[in-house]
Specification:
The complex is a heterodimer of chains A (about 230) and B (about 375). Chain A has about 230 residues and is mostly helical. Chain A has ten helices and no strands.
């Protein structure tokens, strides 16, 4: 049904998306927890900056990454020389780009769910002897879990579809950075590739449907757990 | 365990300036109208509000002193707090909620204490349930148990009954009375209901406009005419600490003795010798300058007038002293003038009815 190259593109997409979501989640969680319920000057600027990847053209994000992390760019060269870490033209670069682009999905979902928690419950926990970290682990995390899971699944689905930032930053290398959307693009560029493009597109639609269903299911199960 | 509070806070338009101390265990009511600053005071004690100026000492430990920049965070104050809206953790079972503070207490109570509180509050059958599946009264009981199990040095109750209907209130009262009589910790009970205060409190701190207007034993405060004028509430009448002295089975009556005489009420089941708090409403007291000899009322007490206050165009409140017990009579202004009532004058008070709470427990010694 699928050619080895197509299976490769599918598995690569899943791996890149999983790594991107997993790495961005703790950062999104930490920033959301810091920014929720807090007011300080310049908060709206930070807030805006964190949402920027969602509204910037992905090609611009890819370009900026190339300028900063390319093998001959200052930060990229330094990382390569001292740690042997290379993002450019590597699947890790694709994961980085997808993680940045989809970061706002996670950040937003987590922050909204943290802000939805009744602050009175936190006060009650204080009077019962719970410090800040204790309250974060035993109240904030479990009560925000629906938002965390929903944000992660949405971000994962969006990662699967990332195109512009990946092709700009890490190019279109079969087996390394050629994810599903890039494979569809390549198939359409080659003569007689319409059937392959159609198969891959169908695959992408099925993946998206699974993602949406999972998000809905997880949300409902966890709301029951969280007593909402 | 004692607590002393001296705080000032400017809310921008509303000034809080409260000074008071509570020395004994039992229930002290913070009584006053809505918006008088009662909740702000208990929030400051718990550490949820940081006053701009002042100090708070709980059991000898200074938890707030703005001059020396001491402000102990709420989680280290060991102050139990029962919120009006219960604030149970929705993702934990009742048992999880109860054990939350218990696990975090610096001196963890024994398992037997856990079982004792659970049975005191009748929570045995609820332990596995989620808060969403509890009734309002059950939530209040769980919140009460959760606060008690955190081994607090003082318990703050912010209108714990206000969100409940009359039937649920009646369900909680006996638990609160048992708690008052069995727990050896001071409780600050915020309320704007005279009925709750009369039934539960040992002493009362009257709060008005962010400041303490009066403080004293409940028996004195509720019969004080100045205070009823102060709070704007109609004077409640008298709360009297009595002891069951005899049962007259054939007459179907019981005799309650108090410092100043005795009261006769319909037959009670309480054992003789038991202390009992009864109330006599000001509206239920008539006055006579000569002893009425043929009258249906059983309770005729010789008192002396201590104060007379005209409350409105038609009525006057008369404060009476009988032994060491205070009563209040509400009569018409015309009657007061006709009888020529003046402080120091002896009168006979005729109590038409004496209210004995059906579940009234013992008054703490």
């Amino acid at each position: 049904m699928l050619s080895p190259a197509e299976v490769e593109a599918l598995l690569l997409s899943l791996r890149i998306s999983a790594v991107a979501v997993a790495c961005a989640l703790p950062i999104a969680l930490a920033l959301a927890a810091l920014l929720a319920h807090r007011r300080f000057p310049g908060k709206s600027i930070i807030d805006g900056a964190l949402h920027l990847p969602m509204v910037l053209p992905p090609v611009v994000v890819g370009y900026l990454l190339l300028v900063v992390l390319g093998t001959r760019a200052p930060v990229g060269a330094w990382l390569l020389e001292h740690f042997g870490i290379r993002f450019a033209f590597s699947w890790t670069g694709a994961a980085l780009a997808s993680g940045i682009i989809t970061f706002p999905f996670q950040f937003r979902a987590i922050r909204l769910s943290i802000e939805a928690i009744d602050s009175g419950i936190g006060d009650a926990a204080k009077t019962l002897g719970a410090g800040a970290l204790d309250r974060f682990i035993n109240l904030t995390l479990p009560l925000a879990l629906p938002g965390i899971i929903a944000g992660a699944i949405t971000a994962f689905a969006a990662c699967l579809g990332e195109f512009g930032a990946i092709i700009t930053f890490v190019s279109n290398i079969p087996g390394e950075t050629r994810t599903l959307p890039l494979a569809i693009y390549s198939a359409l560029q080659s003569p007689g590739g319409e059937a392959e493009a159609a198969r891959l597109s169908l695959l992408a639609i099925i993946l998206a449907l699974i993602g949406v269903t999972l998000a809905e299911f997880a949300d409902r199960r966890i709301r029951v757990f969280a007593g909402r | 365990m004692s607590i002393s509070v001296r705080i000032r806070h400017d809310f921008g338009g509303f000034q809080l300036a409260a000074n008071f101390a509570v020395e004994q265990s039992g229930i002290t009511a913070l009584f006053g109208p809505s918006g008088s600053g009662k909740t702000s005071i208990v929030n400051a004690i718990a550490g949820l509000l940081r006053p701009q100026q002042g100090n708070i000492v709980i059991g000898g430990e200074t938890v707030l002193d703005t001059q020396s920049r001491i402000c102990v965070p709420p989680q280290l104050r060991r102050v139990g707090y029962v919120f009006q809206d219960a604030r149970l953790f929705p993702h934990m079972s009742v048992e999880g909620n109860l054990r939350f503070g218990w696990r975090r207490a610096p001196i963890q109570a024994e398992e037997a204490e856990f079982a004792r509180i659970v049975s005191l509050l009748g929570l045995e059958s609820l332990l596995a349930r989620r808060p969403a599946k509890l009734s309002g009264g059950e939530k209040s009981r769980v919140a009460l148990g959760r606060a008690l199990l955190s081994s607090p040095r003082i318990l703050l109750l912010d209108e714990p009954l206000a969100a409940l209907d009359a039937a649920r209130k009646a369900e909680i009262f006996p638990y609160l009375e048992r708690l008052r009589d069995e727990a050896k910790l001071p409780m600050l009970y915020v309320s704007h209901s005279l009925d709750e205060v009369a039934r539960l409190a040992d002493s009362v701190i009257v709060i008005k406009g962010g400041a303490v207007a009066a403080q004293g034993p409940v028996f004195d405060i509720l019969a004080d005419l100045d205070i009823s004028a102060l709070t704007g509430a109609p004077s409640f009448g008298a709360v009297i600490d009595t002891r069951v002295s005899a049962h007259r089975q054939s007459a179907g009556l019981s005799v309650l003795a108090f410092d100043g005489g005795q009261l006769i009420v319909p037959l009670l089941r309480h054992p003789t010798g038991q202390r009992l708090r009864v109330r006599i409403r000001a509206e239920d007291v008539m006055l006579a300058t000569e002893e009425p000899r043929t009258i249906s009322a059983n309770n005729v007490l010789l008192c002396s007038v201590t104060a007379v206050r005209e409350t409105d165009a038609s009525h006057a409140d008369v404060q009476l002293l009988c032994g060491r017990a205070r009563f209040v009579a509400r009569i018409t202004r015309a009657s007061s003038q006709r009888l020529g009532l003046k402080p120091g004058m002896p009168v006979f008070a005729i109590a038409k009815s004496v209210i004995v709470d059906p579940h009234a427990a013992q008054v703490a010694d």
